[in-house]
Amino acid sequence: MCGIIGYAGNRNAVPVIVDGLKKLEYRGYDSAGIAVFGADGFDVVKQKGRLAALESRLEGSVIAGNVGIGHTRWATHGEPSDVNSHPHVGSKSKIAIVHNGIIENYKRLKERLERKGVRFVSQTDSEVIAQLAEYYYKGDLMDTVIKVSGALEGSYALGIMCLDEPDLLVAVRKDNPLIVGVAEHGNFIASDVPAVLKHTNKVYYLEDGEIAVLTKDGADFLNMDKEPLKKRLETVSWSFDSAEKGGYPHFMLKEIMEQPKVLKDTIHSVMSNGENKSVADGLDISAFDKIVITACGSAYNAGVVAKYVFERLCRVSVEVELASEFRYKDAVIDGKTLVILVSQSGETADTIAAMREAKSKGAVTLSIVNVIGSTIAKEADYCLLTSAGPEIAVATTKAFSAQLVLLYVLAARFAVKLGKLPPESFAELMSEFETLPDKAKEIFEHIDLIQKHASECVVCKSIFFIGRNIDYAIALEGSLKLKEISYIHSEAYAGGELKHGTISLIEEDTLVVAISNCKRLYGKIMSNVEQVISRGAKVLLIGCCPEAEPSSYDGKLSYIGLPEITELFSPSLSVIVLQLFSYYVAANKGLDIDKPRNLAKSVTVE
Ligand code: G6P
């Protein structure tokens, strides 16, 4: 994971880089560091802990320079510590680097260099890059970068500075994202667009094997044969405000509250003429005899919801696979399989590998991605873009909701093409679909109630989520959200499965969150509710259940009602309550909601 940034310009790089790192902290927050050219060589300040700790160290410090690099770390090799923090500088103090990725052959390279007398100071894989670059450097940084790239195995996005060429900032990537931002006062490299949005929305997306050479005056691009490349400067539609908290205490709450708009924008993107609609319309579903959805984390949960929707509407069987499993299972797929990759970042290592595996077997790949220019967006045969805008909180909310929307529309369009859904029913379904943003807004009227229930859960050791069918699918996401940010153990179970094990964990006052939007299964889920209540549990029922009678459960049942909507779209409403519930549990515990411990948003390592 990790976030990197670099700047070459007219301004002092230190505050510019620190500010950019704030927008990359979602990628890792075990330590942070910065290096600039000072009067006597590199000035490097690096510090274990959050970026705030680095900021305190920098307060009152006099370091300044017009070219610099910065890093925020999610530790892989070597514990979080000052010495393992980036930037890493070679032992001759000639080359400084920041690295996102993993160098798989670092041990071999390190041993080779140690035999030549190079002394390493950290336990990281990344230090080998700085040491190797110094070893290769013969007066031309570009030649060095090309040689280093040839020697490294694994993945990397690198920012590199050299003492003998102090005006240059060089960047190169393989399998990790890197953009180049062009502003009036200078030029940037960064792991992601929000890091530069304050300064510019004009970016180049660097590809594998391309080298970017930045000075304060511009950016040039070369290939590994040192030949110049012409790249297209893209304009990003995300605004600077969209990557700011805008008065909310946390990005997560802001992003939850943005969902009605995100739903509206994403619906619009696929219903009105444009790229998304033509992709969704263009796919000939009859060419496939199998659909596989593969993803990680919440994106996987979106796939589980979609399985119910696709199977119900299209009457085709759909497999949902964790990308980390799919990539190694020798999947039974071929040219008649449509593989759908779902990913907010478009950079999740396992999802990228799953996509490449699917392509190598001849399957057709369709991605649903939030970040334009990301690896999955670019490499998949087809791409649908979610209109969630930048998502900063580590726990995804609005991007998940946008993914669901695109998956619903895809399923409905496929159903029409397969002759399983008459055009009139499609039109009816879509007009209901368009009510989603307003109904999502209605949920915010219950915020006080959600907050009250959440405040009672701070002491819970375990919370269970149950549902049946599509409600079970969204229960998975409710449970994941809660454990991610509140550190309360939680599991999601299909209601019918409770009695096969989990019910033994129910004790006096254990909280069970039951989701109920499937009218035909209301009686079934209420039987599960009775079963757990009779064993001492308290139940929070979430759904559209006008027949619910909390008063007849002796204070053991509470109810949060949802606006009525067709069962197929109900996860989009349930999930907002579940997100708010998790958010307020974590807020009541006083936790660092946007940066939960040990997690990172963009998981670019296996
Ligand atoms: C991390 C994030 C999750 C996300 C998952 C997959 O675990 O914390 O919120 O769902 O990665 O990420 P992707 O970018 O592929 O959707």
- Biggest β-sheet: strands ordered side by side in the sheet: 3-2-4-1-10-9-11-14
Strand count, sense and barrel status of the largest sheet are:
8 strands, antiparallel
Bound molecules: 6-O-phosphono-alpha-D-glucopyranose
Shape: globular
Strand composition percent: 15-25%
Descriptive overview:
With 606 residues, the protein is α/β, with parallel strands linked by helices. It folds into 3 domains: 3-243, 4-Layer Sandwich (Glutamine Phosphoribosylpyrophosphate, subunit 1, domain 1); 251-434, Rossmann fold (3-Layer(aba) Sandwich), CATH 3.40.50.10490; 445-588, Rossmann fold. Helix content is 35%, strand content 23%. The chain is built from 19 helices and 24 strands. An 8-stranded antiparallel beta sheet has the order 3-2-4-1-10-9-11-14, with helices on one face. Strands 5-6-7-8-12-13 form a 6-stranded antiparallel beta sheet. Strands 16-15-17-18-19 form a 5-stranded parallel beta sheet, with helices on both faces. Strand 15 (290-295), helix 9 (297-314) and strand 16 form a beta-alpha-beta unit. Helix 7 packs parallel to helix 13. The termini are close together.
